[in-house]
Amino acid sequence: MAHMTAQTIDTISEFMLHAGTDYRVYDMGRGIESMDSQKFIELENNQLPAPCPRTGHAWFGIVFWNKKTSHEQYIWFVKLPIDERSLIVQAARNQFLEAVVTALGSELEKNAEKGGQLPENPFVFTPSQQQLADFNAMIRRDLGLSTREGLSKAVDYLKSPTTNTWQDLALQDIADLAAHINQDDIALAINQNLATLPVQVLTALCSSLENTRFEDALTDQLIDFFVTAQYAETQHMILRGLKGSQSTKKVSTFIEALLTEGQPDTECLVIIAARHFRLLENEALLITFCSKLIAHDPSYQLFRGIYSDLVQVPTSRIGLLKLMRKTDLPTPIANAIASLYQQVSQPKSAT
Asked: For residue range 183-200, what is the model confidence (pLDDT) as tens digits?
């Protein structure tokens, strides 16, 4: 293998290939979604904008392994800054690569001491415990690795939640359960016992469901449960969990009804922006959504915060920019947009 330096490679994808590893990339900006490796290459080459940026960065989980030298997988969590068009800032990516090559060289797994571990640098991040549990569960499933013992424990609990104690379950056990939600016995147990789960289990389960894919029956159940839920917190978790539904028509109908006929609280609106932002490409729904934001916070602070978040997302940006040019908007939205211009044009105070 030719000696690899930061000058001889241009992208993280190229680095992985030079190092002789297989790898998978997951977008971790707004939930965890598997990303095609070709799409990641295009992102790195600025041929595509980051699809799900957050707080001015594109967030990735990269798992890699070398079948020839080891049975182990290694994980990097990398956040790369984006520009105003949501393209990855090349200089930052190059700086990250330089740090990696300098610290690890090209033979990642052979260096037992470093074990593929990234050096301290501003482009790595530590996921929350929940994200980490979901990510681990997804990797095990996607790479066809053997399931953990905790999955059987979680399935047993789910089949009989009144006779087993939920305190025996780890967060990882519930994440594993969600990753295998379409398995017949798990789907059946969920169908029978979802409504009896204690709030602690339901919360963890819905947090994990947003990162997996499930079908109609569970979608219907979650929507029904949202309507009858006693606590706002339960509704928030269900709304997050519905991000994982493959019944996109049902979810969009439900969220449209929630926005047009219901009274979603501030947290529901924030979750819709963070997790169901693709629905807001519908202009009429976007206007309704903005009206709700302003009704909750007439100071426009909530509107401005969500606007500045969503305008980074390529699929949402177009609709938001169109909205700014519309001349027949409801007065509260027109005033909220005017407040955005005022915020931009205000001189920076001296420090």
From this structure: 999 999 998 999 889 989
Handedness of CA 167, 168, 172, 178 (dihedral sign): negative
Of 7, 26, 28, 29, the residue nearest 18 (C-alpha): 7
Tell me the β-bridge partners of 59.
Answer: 79
**Residue 220, token pair as written in the block:** 């219907």
The token pair at 235 is 């509704």
Distance CA 15, CA 97 (A): 8
What does pLDDT average to over the chain?
Answer: 90
pLDDT at residue number 114: 53
Confidence (pLDDT) at 120: 80
Count the Cβ atoms, other than its own, within 10 Å of residue 209: 28
- Six-digit token string for 55: 């707080």
Q: Is-contact 239 272, C-beta < 8 A?
A: yes
CB 340 within 8 A of CB 304: yes
Residues with Cβ within 8 Å of 338's Cβ and at least 6 positions away in sequence, in order, are: none
Could you give the percent of the chain with pLDDT greater than 70?
A: 92
pLDDT of residue 261: 94
175: confidence class by pLDDT, cuts 50, 70, 90: very high
Beta strands at 57-65 and 33-35: parallel, antiparallel or unpaired? unpaired
Element (H, E) at 39: helix 37-44
Positive or negative: CA dihedral 98, 104, 106, 109: negative
Q: Give the C-alpha separation, 278 to 274, whole Å.
A: 10
Summarize pLDDT for 121-147 with one digit per residue, the tens. Answer: 899 999 999 999 999 999 999 999 999
Rounded to two decimals, what is the model's pTM? 0.90
In DSSP notation, 115-182 reads TTPPPS-TTB----HHHHHHHHHHHHHHTTPPPPHHHHHHHHHHH-TTTS-GGG--HHHHHHHHHTTT
